[in-house]
Amino acid sequence: MSLSRVIDEKHLVVCCGSGGVGKTTTAAALALEAARRGRRVLVLTIDPARRLANSLGMEELDNVQRTVEQSRFARAGLDVKGELNALMLDPKATFDDLIRRLAPDEATSRRVLANRVYHLITTALAGTLEYTAVEKLYDLHRQGIYDLIVLDTPPTKNALDFLNAPGKLIGFLDDRILRWFVPEGGTDGQLHHRLAQRTGLMVWKVLGRVFGESFVTELGEFFSSISGMTGAFRTRATEIDRLLRSADTAFVVVTSGDAAVIDDALYFYGKLVDHRMPFAGFIVNRLSPDGGPIDREGLDREMGQLFGSLTRKDVIDLVAKLEEGYGVLRRASAAERRTIDRLREATGRTGFVVRVPQFASDVFDIPGLALTATYMFGEGNLLAREA
Questions:
Q1: Are 159 and 268 in contact (CB under 8 A)?
Q2: Verdict on whether the full-model pTM lies above 0.85
Q3: I need a labelling partner for 96 at 20 to 30 A (CA). Which of 174, 258, 287, 347 fits?
């Protein structure tokens, strides 16, 4: 399947890869192209640097989706037949909204939201960002408002956290674990006694000194309150996992031509295969221009005409320096082509490989996103293939 078919036919596109390879820009460019073709699109980012907001001409983004005004496209000379929306994930707000929806009553919701243990889990626990990203994704998917949702994920180093997020939640809410903390028919006092026995008096004293004597009680209150929601959490986690693996989803790995970054991309590709996720292809950003052969005599003649005051030796020296620079570009381009060949060989030529060149400046506005999309979907991108 080509990249063009992905944005025309899929409901969810997940952009993943290393940090610093233009992943957020890529996600926004894909979303813009889909909107240009008439689809109602949402691009969801976790990037706190506000690159997406800036590139779309917005002052800020938050946990509520915002529509890019058609006038912004018109000023950029673009005819966008569909609609482009954007959202920046707020993990804490996403988790709070989830608790409010799943709590059996308002009193339980208030207890959980006010609990210090809950605050710690939603602000400092490893994997929270990844879980809330897929949770927000699932919630938006269920709303059925958008034809396409494009997700900009955390960098590759958190790949396993992202892919395993639904399963980790199920494990965390395992009944055997909850029974350890929440004795059936027990009271908070009984729980305090059980925890003191199991963790040992010394550990209990340390916890009391560090967090205050009410910490274990709050821990018990948290698990007692959350226990009534475990069924709903498990159901959602299972459905999220099913969504990520469905035929309506496509994972696109974003990388650059650098050999070390290609290694990272291949690592992520391997994890997608291991988890049986629907891999679609690679987008290789920031490639060096392919400096073709130089017409030395013609360049020498043109330089002489352009700089008539220069001596013959000056022109020859200048041409030699230009030729040397071109040589550097040719060698860099050849090295990048070899690394791209590794992508094609590793995937068995089953996914697309799309190339995007290095631009003179960073992409920071809608025209820049449109230019990026032009290279992604241009007919001259010979490495884009149909399956």
A1: yes
A2: no
A3: 174
Tell me which residue of 255, 250, 257 sits closest to 268, measured CA to CA: 255
Specify the pairing of strand 66-67 against strand 352-357: unpaired
Reading the block at residue 69, the tokens are 């005004």
Q: Tokens 């490989």 map to which residue?
A: 353
Q: How many degrees, rounded to 5, is the angle at CA 146 between CA 72 and CA 57? A: 20
Tell me the pairing of strands 148-155 and 279-287: unpaired
Judge residue 252's burial from the number of C-beta atoms within 10 Å of its C-beta, 0-12 exposed, 13-18 middle, 19 or more buried: buried
Positive/negative CA dihedral, 239, 241, 246, 250 = positive
Structure tokens at 241: 């996992």
Give the three-class secondary structure for 307: coil
- 20's CB contacts (< 8 A; 6+ apart) are none
Condensed to tens digits (0 to 9), the pLDDT of residues 48-67 reads 666 787 788 787 788 889 99
Q: Are 284 and 355 in contact (CB under 8 A)?
A: yes
Summarised one tens digit per residue, pLDDT across range 210-266 is 555 566 677 778 877 887 888 888 888 889 889 999 999 999 999 988 888 899 899
Give the up-direction half-sphere exposure of residue 385: CA atoms within 13 A in the CB hemisphere: 12
Radius of gyration of the chain (CA): 27
As a whole number of angstroms, the distance between CA 336 and CA 384 comes to 16
Could you tell me where the beta strands, DSSP code E, fall in the chain? Answer: 12-17, 40-45, 66-67, 83-88, 148-155, 249-256, 279-287, 352-357
Structure tokens at 155: 């960098």
CA dist 207 and 196 (Å) reads 10
